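User: Predict the full complex structure for these chains.
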Amino acid sequence: MPPTETVTLTIDDREVTVPAGTTIWDAARQAEIDVPVLCHSPRLRPVGVCRMCVVDVGERVLAASCVRPCQPGMKVQTASTKVEQHRAMLTRLLLSDMPSERDGASSGKACDLEALGHRYGLFDNHGQLRDDFTARPAAALDVSTTPGLSVSPPSPNKGVVESAAVQGSHAPRLPERPRDFSSPVIAVDHQACILCDRCVRACDEIQSNDVIGRTGKGYLSRIGFDLNSPMGESTCVSCGECAAVCPTRALVHKPVTLPVLAGDELRHVDSVCPYCGVGCAVTFHVNGDTVVGVDGRESVVNHSRLCVKGRYGWDYALHPQRLTTPLIRRSEYYPKGALSRQVQSSARDASADKRRKPGGIVDYAEVLPAFREATWDEALSLAARRLIELRDFHGPGVLAGFGSAKCSNEEAYLFQKLVRTAFRTNNVDHCTRLCHASSVAALMETIGSGAVTNVFADVARSDVALITGSSTTQNHPVAATFIKEAARKGTKLIVVDVRRVDLADFATHFAQIRPGTDVAFYNGVMHVLIAEGLVDRQFISRRTENFEALSAMLLAQYSPEQAAAICGVPADEIRAIARTIGRAGSMIVFWGMGISQHTTGTDNARCLISLCLMTGNVGRPGTGLHPLRGQNNVQGASDSGLIPMVYPDYQPVGDAKNREKFERAWGVPLDPKPGLTVVEIAHAALHGDIKGMYILGENPFLSDPNTAKVRQALANLEFLVVQDIFLTETAEFADVILPASSYLEKTGTYTNTDRRVQVGRKVLDPPGEAREDWKIICDLAGRMGYPMEYASTEEVFKEFSSLAPSYAGLTHGNLGLSGKLWPCADPATGDGTQILFGDRFPTPSGRGKFVPCPWLPADELPDEAFPFVLNTGRVLEHWHTGTMTRRSHALSTIEPEAFVAVNPADLSRLQIEPESLVCVSSRRGTITLKARADRTVETGSLFVPFHFREAAANVLTNDALDPFGKIPEFKFCAVRLERADG
Amino acid sequence: MELLRELTRLQHEHGWLSDERLRTLAEERNVPLYRLEGLVSFYTHFRRTPPPRVAVQVCRDLSCCLAGGPALIAELRDEFRGQDDVEICEVSCLGRCDAAPAAAIDDKPLAPITLKDRAGVRQRIAGRSTIAATGTPAAQERFRVDPYATENDHFGTIRKWASEDADIFSRIIDVLKGAGLRGMGGAGFPTGKKGEMVARQAATPKYVICNADESEPGTFKDRAILQHLPHLVVEAMILAGLAVGAEQGIVFLRHEYGREQIAVERALGRAREMGVLGSNVAGSGKRFEIEIFVSPGGYILGEETALLEALEDKRGEPRNKPPYPGEHGLWGCPTLINNVETLALGASIAAHGVDWWKAQGANGYSGLKFFSVSGDVARPGVYEVPYGTTIRELLDRAGGIRDGKALKAILPGGASSNFLPPDKLDTPLDFDAVKEAGSMLGSGAVVAIAEGTNLFALATNIVTFFRNESCGKCVPCRVGSQKGVELLEAVARGAASAEELAILPALGETMAQTSICGLGQVALNPILSMMQHFPDDVPGARR
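Assistant: Here is the predicted structure of the two-chain assembly.
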């Protein structure tokens, strides 16, 4: 039906005109006529099961308005006596089965059914049901409540249930339906469930997690998880969408901090999630000085969706281990070294430490005695004095700073400004070096810009989406919901990964490549595209350069058979994938650390760029290059200049014109030499070339490769200031520790993976004497002789945006509740530019450049002594070095300890029992942890998440670097796997 | 279809469906676990625990109840109490109301053996009887609707029309409209009109479905037609397919009709041999195929949109309508769904012509009709009678009320129809006449109830059937039927007073007005009409 077609009808004697296909319920809503409903919400596909929204359309029976399309000339009565009588009866039926008073009721959650009960006068003055169909006494309750039954029993034989409970029985009443507390985050009360199927659609359609469905039939129906398992034992990923949409108290968020009681007066703060680069819009609910809950907020970014971290993982900010006062290292703890057992022991052979208890967060009793409390004045004076001494004695090149991608744009801007002006060096970097440095290097080199060319949600318009080196459902869970939704609606997914990631279940093609063979695979795909004439000739000739060089190399060396021999994907599958790409009208490419964290990371990204360029898949709807950014503000921290070779907005420090611009703006001479990168700084510290450091909100001890070296490097520093919210592993080596603010305790802007700049708003005051990070930076700068004075972060943002053309025109004020994409030509009204490079690329020639990349093997290949390939990464519930997530009750309960994922075939070959302790060793060290059987990991490969201090994956990893992006090879090193008792 | 067929195959192969097996299937098919759980917990055919040596299904519904089922079931339970290898499970109507009280072993009906034949049942449970049951003998062998004298004449209409290069669509619509044929599944929708609607749709592919899932207590006429006249059903499906432009037909058959499945398969085989089914139907150059889908169980699947959901491997929950299947049916495509009898009669009319059809009626009506007659009659069975035959005449053909008892009440159209008192015996069995009399013709299941039967208990039994068979999708049916049953049982027990039944008309009206499908809309009819006509049967009623 053409969208212009309209239908005119009468609703409650009002004439209403709506687009054809509009339901009566939606039409009534547009006319501001409220039709009560339980099973429907505008976010959901209507199903018409509660029947509360019935209206009279003059037919034999009433019609459910949420599913009935408007017809021309229809006369609708939404609230006639007849209609209201039936609604009252339906309400009465449902209320008669509600649990009288159970735990759910104390969740403070409003119940839509109860509200209807009040509307229809079904409660008396004491809140009791006037008549509930069940007021008559029951005879012998032989099938009554089973005491202690709090979780759903395994699905019983249908026949048994029938004869025991409903059908065979003339038993008076059925037993109350069970409650299920098995999930760490959601309480289920089946008795309060009205089978509205909202949770079913939330789980299976909004989040595409496919866990909840109906089980049973008729009056015995209820919602079930997987094969009617207890929720906590199901494949539920705890996103909480089900509880968010539940209209009764059947699914309730368990209290994360304080329970919310009816009548509590809450403050609500609209902000953004502190975790990943998706940047979901959230609302924090605050009771006094405690956050008590979070909800997804309607926004173009996440449409109210959240993941387990965003919804339940914010309580780290309220953890008792928060640092609340500045600390100075006691003299007796020199020379410096690690303090806690885990940080000391991870260097030693783990066999010495086999009987230790399972890990967890640091025991402050082990580390705090090394420090004494100090005043801010004393701590900052000491820091300033020592840094100045080192700078003035050895030269500015001995100082370095690590900023943080978890801090705001304003803080990142101030931090790099401090290092460049007060430290007088460009030795400033942050964890972008460890995640997408190679992607950015390749993007800058080929298309002149390091950011995404299109937003992730545009996958809805893509014919094909290529997802590679990304476990999107774990690392960008909400972005993954958009990809899964697109797949359900017809977008063909091509998933290329060394692991069978969750998205493979939604994929048209899944290619499980051998580790470190991405270049060979994509070269093979591009060979087919060229050989079969599936490239976009016009785009190549108009928009690109150097195609011939690439083409010649590919045709000569990368036939599908040649590529297959390297990457392990059959040649015909390479062809099929190439044809799917070549025949698609549009393709968007998503990639993650599986591409970037290699010594060939830049080559890997170059291949993806070439693939898009030769098929013309940049600059149009449904197309684009989208490196999924990890941290909430890794895009923004890079934009703000937290990079050693560029000033804010990627203006190279080596360029005299840029230098003059910033010297003018900042009023001091600047170092013309690009600074050192993260791993280079660690190496320099090891050799004594870096002597003093300021580390803000980063934890290189756990996040950087080859922990043994990092330990030595940190211990080798003459002076280290660590600014953080907890006493991290890195802080064990500090001379001064400054208590900082958590995300919840300050206002600033954060730029998500889409380039969307959003305002994160202050929810709480920092605890104790802890201070907002930007204020600490300014204070230290002043004490080092470079005064920085700002009234607010808004003022900082103004200065930053005046120096960063991409952010021109943006202010805290005009970013509003949904933020804006940079660049934004018309900040007063526009949302910013979604799709970049429709006409030209910001390169000197205006063209995109093909860079031929021959395949190179990884730096350290497996051999007889170290036969396995180790892959590292993250899990859904944890964040980087675990500083935050391991202090979240929900997240640490779900995933409490370290593990290594091993293919079951390898486990049985090595006679290792699943869940038993194993040792994983590389040339650099050994860790001891539990083995987990995991078929998504290929034989010969292992996967270890790097969040866990007690078995830090980076003890094992190789610190060899990609020559262009300077990113270490986190995704590939040779290891050995052994039983811990063997 | 694939997923449910695979589950059925696994159920047959292993006798039950373990979690492990379901997990493997989910992985193989890349299907979420919740979907499998939704299916295996919804359809009665699937077991989630290992089966005993013998699983006996005993019918607990209307006609079997009238035949003394409850007492006989209790005796059977007593006899096998403590024998773990024998499971006795009460189930919904098995479609063997003419062999009541009916039972089945491992879903294979024992008829003609009934629960009254204790020795026979015992032998079968012991596994000693190797005699294959022959089924209930038909009340008649030769049917007037069948235009074909011998098997070789079968499919004559399709062969003739194809050889004449006829416009099959207009021919079939003409005869159906001329004959005034209405849907015999219960709703009585004009058959020709339905066909036109599907033919009009531009979308393809289209489907033709034979609804052979009759499961309402008292209804078993389609079983006899499938057994004795499957060639008419098959021919009508082919004609319908060519008429509306479909290439695929599906017979949706209830799983207890194993013997009938064989008959239909045989007819399909014959049709293929004779060249009227396949890639070139009777030389017309058109293609039409028919496959059988065996229902995994549940009365609700007779509701046409629930049936479609089952064919799409979903839980058999009726859809919200509109859109109707004619526009938006199987996989969203235009779909023609007709009942077994409608199809058979259609084929008969096509062969015989409208004039012949009109000459067949009685009492001024035209045509023929099949009735399932059960309950307290001497010779329960399926009867083919002139359309318009009165209730009295039909009961007489079935031998009258058994044991010389007097008639107390009639259900003229199956479990969902209203009770009629004996003074309505001379009502012609016609859609409008029965409606006029205060009930409905429904599926043509005439149940006679003799004097001495407590109708409150019987009505409670029927409401309980609907409660048991409610799919649970919508609130009024799922909760309303349960609350209705709870109240009726409480009144029967004396735990609630008869006055409390005053809520039932309002509850019934809400269920009728707001339920998604017919099941919930009619679920309280039996008790409401019983209270109207036979108030004295209510326990504790003021006399």
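Residues 184 and 342 of chain B are 5 Å apart (CA to CA).
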